[in-house]
Amino acid sequence: LMLQKNARGISPKTQVLYLVVFLARYLDLFTTFYSAYNSFMKIMFILSTAFILLAIRCSEPLRSTCDTARDTFVLWKVLAPSFLFAMILVLIIPHRHGFDLLQLLWTFSICLEPLAILPQLFLVFRYREIESITWIYEYILFKGAYRALYIVNWIYRAHTEPNYRHHYLVYVCGVLQTLVYADFLLFYVARKSLIRWMALRGVDVEYVDANEEDGGVQFELLLDQDESESLGMEESKQATHSSHSTTSQRNNKVATATEVKDGFITILE
Fold it and tell me: Taking the model in full, what pTM does it have?
């Protein structure tokens, strides 16, 4: 990001969601010490995500190159369901010490993480040529590989550690997150994607405002700017062709009427 000096293709909303995930999950930094390495990595996850978000929002030229016109994902559509589901789970499966706020926030972070990448995917899929932002492409694929290796790690530990504690919610959410990345991989291989289908139909958009602060750009729900221009040119050609056809038909009718009139005059003479 800092080497490219360009935030094109990066979704600030995905960074916001990841920051929420890490803050909710790692509040145990203030209550429990596991190891120096554990604490260091938790702090690095929080600080690095916050740094990326601040750099995109506040630092030039990153702020100017950030494509807010396409980054339209409404965050409450993933925050609210994740929190509600976490609350239900905590109430159904109560903690041994009663209601535990940290347990609720940890469960919320687990439920939210599989959905945190969605704004990034929706943003990328709205570019006509995804290959033009290859480093974002690679970033998403590597994150998917990272999550898939987590599943391998769980399987390995479950078979090698005698007292390994199973977290079935973590398993389910981990598999769901892997499927999200698998959808992107399917697009990479076969150009088919359910998430892309949703992105191009604007299912994440709450409203469309033609008077945005960022240049007054009106977001096209179905097509990006290049495709819209292409469609506009095609419609213009069709309209021109239709106009020419109508004019030609009128000229033919006038010519026919003139011939009939001349023939009638000749007969009278």
Answer: 0.72
